[in-house]
């Protein structure tokens, strides 16, 4: 009897401790085993427009979460790829199928891209359930990870008085929602908050850190054994690849349309 009861008591203790774990928006979620962890130096393809080319010989693909069915992700998996689900979590896009579910009160100024407006990330009561549903979609389609975009609204003219604390709280919420679904999650840009968010995110995605002389700020991810997926648009590979290789970034040159074309380091 004693040997049968010990495992039950241990199980009860585990459940009790799990119930005490904080799940507030601004606290890191509990660590979870089995989640994909991309490592420094892995090559990748980022394609958000045009007909998807599944034949690029890289281990990681980053594609639009809405635009592709589960069969596409399954095909990439058969080819040995890990697949990242691109979502805009900090801006509203008027062409998405759930666009009508966002109340006008959370829509701010345009973010410079046609049909997109910044979101009031303080309204986690509204945005939390909407983003949870989007992340359900990524999980259900079989994605391995998520790239949440527009995660630095507090540094932009959004139409809302967003603060750094607002951004930290929202970014941690998105990370926790992703982790609860077994998805790895990347920190998109938001370089200034890397020290606070490093433990919450599994990798980073960055645009133009070489052009803006910011790449060393991403080193904490590399030092933690986490990949930094990086693109440049304006610089030639001769200008940024030596630095990228020295920092162990996963870097390539892309065009702004993020189609098939790529020139890796």
TrEMBL record:
The keyword Signal applies. Residues 1-23 form the signal peptide. Keywords: Signal. Residues 43-258 form the Glycoside-hydrolase family GH114 TIM-barrel domain. It holds the Pfam family Glyco_hydro_114. This is Endo alpha-1,4 polygalactosaminidase. InterPro entries: Aldolase_TIM (IPR013785), GH (IPR017853), GH114_TIM-barrel (IPR004352). Residues 22-41 are annotated as: Disordered. It comes from Streptomyces gobitricini. Coiled coil: none annotated.
């Amino acid at each position: 009897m004693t040997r049968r009861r010990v495992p039950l008591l241990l199980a009860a203790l585990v459940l009790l401790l799990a119930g005490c774990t904080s799940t507030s928006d601004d606290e890191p979620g509990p660590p979870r085993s089995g989640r994909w962890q991309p490592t420094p130096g892995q090559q990748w393809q980022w394609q958000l427009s045009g007909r998807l080319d599944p034949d690029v010989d890289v281990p990681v693909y980053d594609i639009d979460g809405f635009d592709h069915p589960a069969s596409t992700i399954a095909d990439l998996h058969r080819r040995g790829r890990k697949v990242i689900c691109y979502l805009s979590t900090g801006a509203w896009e008027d062409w998405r199928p759930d666009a009508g579910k966002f109340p006008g009160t959370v829509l701010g100024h345009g973010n410079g891209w046609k049909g997109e407006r910044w979101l009031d990330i303080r309204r986690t009561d509204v945005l939390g359930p909407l983003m949870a549903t989007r992340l359900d979609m990524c999980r259900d389609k079989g994605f391995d990870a998520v790239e949440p975009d527009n995660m630095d609204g507090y540094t932009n003219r959004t139409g809302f008085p967003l603060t750094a604390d607002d951004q930290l709280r929202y970014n941690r919420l998105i990370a926790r929602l992703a982790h609860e679904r077994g998805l790895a999650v990347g920190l998109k840009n938001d370089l200034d908050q890397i020290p606070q968010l490093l433990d919450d995110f599994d990798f980073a995605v960055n645009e133009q850190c070489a052009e803006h002389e910011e790449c060393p700020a991403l080193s904490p991810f590399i030092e933690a054994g986490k990949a930094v997926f990086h693109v440049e648009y304006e610089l030639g590979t001769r200008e940024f690849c030596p630095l990228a290789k020295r920092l162990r970034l996963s870097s390539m040159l892309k065009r702004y349309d993020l189609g098939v074309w790529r020139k890796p380091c």
